[in-house]
Amino acid sequence: MTTPPSPRESVPVLQVRDIVKTYGGVTALNGVSLDLFPGEVLCLAGENGCGKSTLIKIISGVEKPDSGEIIVDGVAHPAMQPADAIKSGIQVIYQDFSLFPNLTVAENIVLTSAVADRRRLYSPAGSRPAAQAIVDELGLDLDLDADVDSLSVADKQLTAICRALVSDARVIVMDEPTTALTHTEVERLFALVQRLRDRGVALVFVSHKLDEVLQVSQRVTVLRSGRHVITADAATLDPRSVARHMTGRDVDDSRSVGLVPVEGPPVLEVVDLSLTGAYEGISFTLRRGEVLGVTGLLGSGRTEIAESLFGVLPAERGTVRVDGQEVRLHTIRDAVRAGIGYVPEDRLSQGLFMDRSIADNMIAGSLDAHRTRWRTVDRAGTRTTIRGLFDRLRIKAPNVAAPVRSLSGGNAQRVVLAKWLATKPKVLMLNGPTVGVDVGSKEEILAILRAEAAAGMGVIVISDDAPELVASCHRVLVIRQGRLAHTLEGEGISVDTIRERVAA
Amino acid sequence: MSGGLARFRGRNNEGVLAVVLLLLVVGMSVANPAFFSLSTGFSILRGSIVPLVFALGVLLVIISGGIDVSFAAIAVFAAYTTVKVAGSTALPLGVLGAFGLALVIGALLGLVNGLVIARFRLPTLIVTLGTQGIFKGVLLTYVGARFIADLPDSMAGLSTTNLLTIGSGQGRAQLHVLVLPAIALAVLLAWMLRRTMFGRSIYAIGGDQEAARRAGIRVMRTQVWVFALVGMMAAAGGMFHMIMGRSANPQDLVGGELDIIAAVVLGGASIFGGRGSVLGTVLGVLLVQVINNSLILVGVPSAWQRTAVGVLLIVGVGVQALAARRSARKVHANVIDQQEVAA
């Protein structure tokens, strides 16, 4: 990788000075400052709830700081509006992309800059060349006339990047740009980042995947609980030291499962499971006490397999046995009755009642198990279950009555986990259990899963986070184009082999 | 689907709607040759004027991601108040003065909706449901509840003005002059939605409100303007209604909101916001009018008209939803294809 002239010799394009921001009584940011130089990538790291998102919103003018200022090219902006930020060359690529699904790619690309220019009229014919130019410059294959909601996630991301570039951005903030991308797409994004640096664009990169962060950035700024902890050259840091600065303690992500395969009795046996267009001839056995990883590219069929086992997307052929008993899995009810639990990919929309309390969410899946003889809810029983899980999963909240919406990503994920553990499943499947969860919580969630497995459950973790699979799985199945391509075991499980097998 | 066909079909299925309309007209003309005449055509156009003006207003709100059920109450409030004021000898208003007064009242009432919705971020349905009752209550209590059988002279003159009169006696076909402002409004609105940043902002807000805020669009201001515009359009529609009916009834219009919303949705506007077009709305309104007119001609009892519109609405929206689901599945399949190629 070529390095541009040392950034320290130039003038910062963006300076953030002593930003303080409080919401209600909670201090989200407490005197945070940072400098950003042209042509550098600065990584902003920190646990969920450390204030990263708030800082991004302040830089982009969506939120106003209580005190402190944003200086762009030497001009101070005490109260910046979103349109001002865009006008002064600051572009944010949000985690959810913030695109307009009902408009075409071309219009999405040009609309924000037209708003920033305070234009009154809009010309569809005039905006196309501008969009085309940026797509060509980046050498992308995007259909400018397609509606954005018809695009794949990766193309949506590219559209968001094009939009950031069309108005001569000098600062681009990318919030978790890689969560929705596969390994190859991430590589392509990094190549693009390099090209942007060569153009003198400064980038702020926010990601939970620490190895990625260190690969792409020159400097790293770590925030913890709204305070600036350290800013250092990326070369002087490794994932472990960044994690230590983020959490304030040592984080263990090394392989911490027994290398020897588990010898417990099989709890789930899948034989020749097939669903046309999704997957074909999948067979595997999950033993009691085992954590089984399932990985593969997005669209490889890994999610569909889990959904079939959970009765959402019933398989066409094949047999499934739970504890040796053959089961029919045509509906979710069938699966739950058979003792199979599933924590879906998008926990916010599929796994939680966001406005209800932690307690209500925890027992939402196991009400049948908590009833009295007269079919009313057994209050004492639910209280014991809730209290027990709340403590066992170490959920950080004032009390169990707090609404789930108020929790950070890692804690919300624990509530979903608690909901399923309350049903006492024999097999628990988790899809992307630590997506969007910070390193500290991630380690704890994985530890909980290992402990639950050790207590006699069979656990399936579906993930494309290779280090996570290495840290927690006894065996890893690699799915490619709907087929079981490899089974990795014991010493064969490493970050490199997993990535290699997935992409091969 | 080939490019030409896709273009004919339109972004909101306008092409499909046009074909359905055409088939209906042809079918009805075959079933009853009396249907296919200039006088039927003109009478359908006349009947479409008021629904179209209302529907264009509703279209704006629906594209912005909201819904307005208070427009009929605003229409009757503005028009009845204007008739009452213009009818009192103290303040003689010309036609333009009367319309000006109605538009100001409409804008103010729309502003009430807009300010409450944007300032307190309340659901549009609930707020307009509430203001609908408030507007109507205030009208009946403070302005008047009496049926006014004759309009002031200036407005009454307009009632009988025709743009075109063709033929004479029984076969006489008359085109009412008020089609002109209705057409002008449709053209103006189509231009505004397509070619102004205000129009594009309405689409953007309807597509994703938070994304619009982050893009620097002033969401609150735009919403307030949308509701003020809808209020003005409702007021104009109310005036047209009373002029063409040659009377002012404070109990009119309120209750017919859902028919208008149905026509807009039938015209391809998405009830979830972000999609819809003036052309589609015009076709939707015409379709409903043709059904109402033609069913009478072929001898179907008028009670079935509502059923027919209801069936059409569910079929129309259902077909669109199924098509959307199919194309979503296609995207999924494409993703797998691409990855297989890459692999």
Automatic annotation (TrEMBL), chain A:
InterPro entries: AAA+_ATPase (IPR003593), ABC_carbohydrate_import_ATPase (IPR050107), ABC_transporter-like_ATP-bd (IPR003439), ABC_transporter-like_CS (IPR017871), P-loop_NTPase (IPR027417). CDD domains: ABC_Carb_Monos_I (cd03216), ABC_Carb_Monos_II (cd03215). SUPFAM superfamilies: P-loop containing nucleoside triphosphate hydrolases. GO terms for molecular function: ATP binding; ATP hydrolysis activity. Pfam families: ABC_tran. Residues 14-250, 262-504 form the ABC transporter domain. Keywords: ATP-binding, Cell membrane, Membrane, Nucleotide-binding, Repeat, Sugar transport, Translocase, Transport. The keyword Ligase does not apply. The keyword Translocase applies. This is Sugar ABC transporter ATP-binding protein. It comes from Modestobacter muralis.
